[in-house]
Design goal:
Length: 384
């Protein structure tokens, strides 16, 4: 993707989204928006990379598996997509691993780097307890370059080596202390584009109360609190993430947080109607299909608009087909370029209980911060 222009990259993603919708999703004859941050350099603030000793024993490779090389890795410490702070922290950890021999670094399996406007955190994962010399060298690098450091052996709870285990992330006027394993945006600029598209879809729809399902650390939650006057219920299976959202809200009465399985929480919320009548649900799951079991309680709760933000396009389209069977119509779609310079994108879908408009969406619902790419079929629909 980095060897073609950004315009061609976005056009390719748009074509891919149309193909996925046609193959897996409900019938849809409307346009597809393309929402992009407009950059492919210096935007990425989070990543996890495997570590291997070089065959000649001279240092390590920190990166991703390279196609065609089996288990071989390509070192991406200097990747242009990474922010300056990301590159600094990754380089500092890599320099320590390069300087020490295989005996000290042989058990290191991966390094995760997380940064924000305020903080930076590195998590070094190993298959065995870390060599004392390696630990001391890493702590020295963390102190010199001002980042927090965690060590983790296998699936055990991470151990704090230096600094604090959380990372501060700003959502509007709220500051969230995120836990090490909780999901955060890898590209905050792209996340802002996502929120802009979301606002354009819900503006003027008369919503008061809303559900933020699979809320993670509250990117959408706090934006909904800003946009709506009523209550917001934030739900996620990650208890640490839900707790971080709750603590950041500081006892705000308009926000309710629930940790647990989506279907169980929605079933419990149904018992509270009509006291709780959310008309909007934002669903932002991981890459697996949710299915009817997780989504069937939305209509009985009174939800008439579902904004589905799917990091796996095929899974999002399949869930849209499920929602269509439950009485929702696909009213709008978007390619959200969360990972510029790669083949990955998020499929944003706007589903409503009222019949969908055909052709191109008109009037005030047109996103203001998106780039549109037409196809000949689009032009024919518009002319007709």
């Amino acid at each position: 993707m980095r060897h073609i222009s950004q315009e061609r990259e976005l056009a390719w993603k748009l074509t891919s989204a149309r193909q996925v919708l046609e193959r897996y999703g409900p019938a849809y004859g409307g346009s597809v928006d393309v929402v992009s941050p407009g950059v492919r350099r210096g935007h990425r603030v989070r990543g996890r990379f495997r570590v291997q000793r070089r065959p000649d024993g001279q240092g390590v490779v920190m990166g991703l598996r390279q196609v065609g090389l089996g288990d071989g890795l390509v070192d991406i410490r200097g990747c242009v997509a990474q922010s300056a702070r990301f590159t600094q922290v990754m380089g500092a950890v890599g320099a320590v691993l390069d300087a020490l021999g295989a005996e000290a670094t042989g058990s290191v399996e991966s390094v995760e780097v997380r940064t924000s406007d305020r903080d930076a955190l590195a998590i070094v994962q190993s298959s065995a307890p870390m060599d004392l010399g390696l630990k001391e060298a890493l702590v020295g690098a963390a102190k010199t370059h001002g980042f927090s450091l965690l060590g983790q052996v296998g699936d055990e709870t991470p151990t704090m080596f230096h600094g604090k285990p959380s990372l501060q992330v700003q959502h509007g006027r709220w500051t969230v202390e995120t836990a090490p394993g909780s999901w955060t945006h890898a590209s905050p600029l792209a996340g802002e584009g996502l929120l802009t598209w979301l606002r354009s879809r819900i503006e003027g729809q008369g919503h008061r109360d809303a559900l933020d399902l699979c809320c993670a650390t509250g990117t959408v939650t706090f934006d909904l609190l800003e946009q709506l006057e009523g209550d917001v219920v934030a739900v996620d299976a990650d208890r640490a993430a839900v707790l971080s959202v709750k603590e950041a809200a500081g006892g705000l009465e308009r926000l309710e947080t629930r940790a647990g399985k989506l279907s169980v929480v929605l079933r419990k919320l149904r018992r509270r109607t009509p006291a709780l009548r959310p008309t909007l649900a934002v669903v932002n799951p991981m890459r697996k299909v949710l299915g009817e079991r997780e989504l069937k309680d939305l209509r009985p709760l009174g939800v008439r608009q579902v904004i589905y933000l799917g990091p796996a396009a095929a899974s999002a389209a399949k869930d849209a087909a499920v929602l269509a069977a439950l009485g929702y119509h696909l009213h709008g779609a978007a390619v959200i370029d969360l990972h510029p310079g790669t083949a990955q994108f998020m499929l944003g879908l706007d589903l409503r209980t009222q019949p969908a408009l055909t052709g191109r969406i008109k009037g005030g619902e047109e996103p203001t911060a998106s780039h549109r790419y037409k196809t000949p079929k689009d032009d024919q629909q518009e002319d007709s």
